[in-house]
């Protein structure tokens, strides 16, 4: 299948690109600059040479019409995987830095496809558990989150702080995609992949640890000694392996039954305290930097009272080993990605 993958320089997208290429798909990936394309080329020389992989430069997805050129290719695209969206909290203007690129990026690519790429049959969008979880309800004991849930966050709440801003950006962008499908009745299906916190190996070009992607940062903080006196609050207790998220993106357009559904892909629960304990057990070289068993903070809520997640298995993708070295994580793995109907 001829596939367009947006944001190829990202943490999740780099794994998705690997899966696409391994499965024999022909891929064009968008990146913001030629330098970023050159870095991906280094890891995929063979595929670039054979023509299986090429690049399209899209500097800013928040611009109207940003994808107009990228969606047109010869041979034409059949599937589009839209992963590009800001996930960081280093923002001065929530609207401009988070909401606009997420929302305009999503509606923009759907408009460009409808207008200029009639051959596209499937669009897969990276949404998030952020579009599902109701942050105002805190740890929400007694509730089971599933694809039926929507984060009820408002635009006003979005502007209150970067964390709200990010969650709202994912919520509004995903809503805009489903609205587009309903109103515009395009020629393509839409599937969304909604992962909670994504952990796993880095396969994309990373020039500095300062630029480590947001979800892996807490592991870095632990080994840098930032949790030595107190472990940071966990915040969200669900996680999934990046390799499973990548598989899910590809399965979502390869399998017809995935059309027009959202998929809350979840492996299990974790706490920052467990993250620290797993590193302590497996990486003795960080002993001096790490918190001890009695360091306060980072635990599950009192009495393990927090939300549940629905684990229904509908579509199976191959099961991965959990985080390398994070053997504790295996215990909470569901055994397969729990795809379920919305
Ligand atoms: P990364 O920060 O590694 O990837 C984000 C990608 O989006 C990068 O390629 C980035 O390009 C691109 N991007 C951001 N803003 C723009 C813009 N204005 N114009 C063009 N490109 C842009 O993070 P992840 O891989 O974690 O995130 C990928 C997707 O997964 C996002 O949609 C995110 O919301 C979603 N997600 C991630 C989770 C996680 O825990 N990691 C959990 C749930 C969802 P560049 O690097 O050049 O800035």
From TrEMBL:
<dbReference type="GO" id="GO:0016616">
    <property type="term" value="F:oxidoreductase activity, acting on the CH-OH group of donors, NAD or NADP as acceptor"/>
</dbReference>
<comment type="similarity">
    <text>Belongs to the NAD(P)-dependent epimerase/dehydratase family. Dihydroflavonol-4-reductase subfamily.</text>
</comment>
<keyword id="KW-0560">Oxidoreductase</keyword>
<protein>
    <submittedName>
        <fullName>NAD(P)-binding protein</fullName>
    </submittedName>
</protein>
């Amino acid at each position: 299948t001829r596939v367009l993958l947006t944001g190829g320089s990202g943490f999740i997208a780099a794994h998705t690109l690997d899966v696409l290429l391994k499965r024999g798909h022909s891929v064009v990936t968008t990146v913001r600059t030629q330098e970023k394309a050159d870095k991906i080329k280094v890891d995929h020389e063979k595929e670039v040479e054979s023509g299986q992989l090429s690049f399209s430069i899209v500097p800013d997805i928040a611009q109207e019409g940003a994808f107009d050129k990228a969606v047109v290719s010869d041979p034409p695209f059949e599937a589009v995987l839209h992963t590009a969206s800001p996930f960081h909290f280093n923002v001065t203007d929530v609207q401009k830095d988070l909401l606009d690129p997420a929302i305009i990026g999503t509606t923009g690519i759907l408009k460009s496809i409808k207008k200029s790429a009639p051959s596209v049959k499937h669009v897969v969008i990276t949404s998030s558990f952020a579009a599902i979880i109701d942050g105002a309800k805190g740890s929400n004991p007694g509730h089971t989150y599933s694809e039926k849930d929507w984060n009820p966050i408002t635009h006003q709440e979005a502007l209150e702080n970067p964390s709200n801003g990010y969650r709202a950006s994912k919520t509004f962008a995903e809503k805009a995609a489903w609205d587009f499908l309903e109103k515009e009745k395009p020629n393509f299906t839409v599937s969304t992949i909604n992962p909670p916190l994504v952990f796993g190996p880095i396969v994309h070009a990373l020039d500095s640890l300062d630029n480590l992607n947001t979800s892996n940062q807490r592991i870095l903080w632990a080994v840098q000694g930032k949790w030595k006196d107190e472990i940071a609050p966990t915040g969200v207790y669900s996680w999934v392996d990046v390799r499973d998220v990548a598989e899910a993106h590809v399965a979502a357009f390869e399998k017809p039954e995935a059309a027009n559904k959202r998929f809350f892909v979840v492996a299990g629960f974790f706490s920052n305290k467990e993250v620290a304990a797993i590193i302590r057990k497996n990486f003795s070289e960080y002993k001096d930097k790490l918190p001890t068993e009695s360091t306060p903070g980072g635990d599950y809520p009192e009495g393990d009272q927090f939300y549940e997640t629905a684990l229904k298995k509908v579509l199976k993708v191959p099961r991965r080993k959990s985080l390398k070295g994070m053997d504790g994580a295996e215990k909470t793995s569901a055994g397969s990605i729990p795809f379920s109907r919305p």
